[in-house]
Amino acid sequence: MVQRRLVAALAIACAVAVVNGCGRDIPKEPITLDGNFLTVDNRTNQEWRGVEVWLNRSYRVTAASIPAGSRFQAPLNTFVDGYARRFDFKRMQVRDLRLTATQPDGAVVHMEKSFQQIGLEHTLGAAVGKKP
After folding, report:
1. Residue 99 domain-assigned (yes or no)
2. E-strand spans in the chain?
3. Is residue 93 in a domain?
């Protein structure tokens, strides 16, 4: 009876370790969203200059630089389009995020984060033969 309990306890401990990744952290993506809040992690050893982040290809926010090993954070309502209209998180859906910047050596940094489409637009697009 004691051996069965010990085996069961060890099995549970192993299952928890596997689910938790054996203590290893899963690396986060460099561009993350948490509700109405964007975070960009510069995990490189070089500064990013002239940073532009585009939301849905129409709304933009800029930063002069993101130093090496640091992060940039901004609420989504700080993104504005060419007509000075702000992104309205409560009424609009995030479809994609794109980042461009330049490193001190002139190399271009480019990242994209796409999101799965949901709702009527996705469903109707599939109904008329468009790719989702």
Report:
1. yes
2. 31-34, 37-41, 48-55, 59-66, 71-75, 96-102, 108-114
3. yes
Q: Distances in Å between the alpha carbon of 97 and those of 33, 70, 124?
A: 10, 19, 23
Taking the model in full, what pTM does it have?
Answer: 0.68
In a domain? residue 91: yes
Q: How many other β-carbons are positioned within 10 Å of the β-carbon of residue 62?
A: 10
Do residues 74 and 61 touch, judged by C-beta distance below 8 A?
Answer: yes
Rounded Cα distance, 131 and 18, in Å: 37
Q: What distance in Å separates the CA atoms of residue 121 and residue 125, rounded to the nearest whole number?
A: 6
Summarize pLDDT for 6-20 with one digit per residue, the tens. 445 555 555 555 455
User: What are 110's strand-pairing partners?
Assistant: 100
| CATH code where residue 42 lies | 2.60.40.10
Burial of 29 (0-12, 13-18, 19+ CB in 10 A): exposed
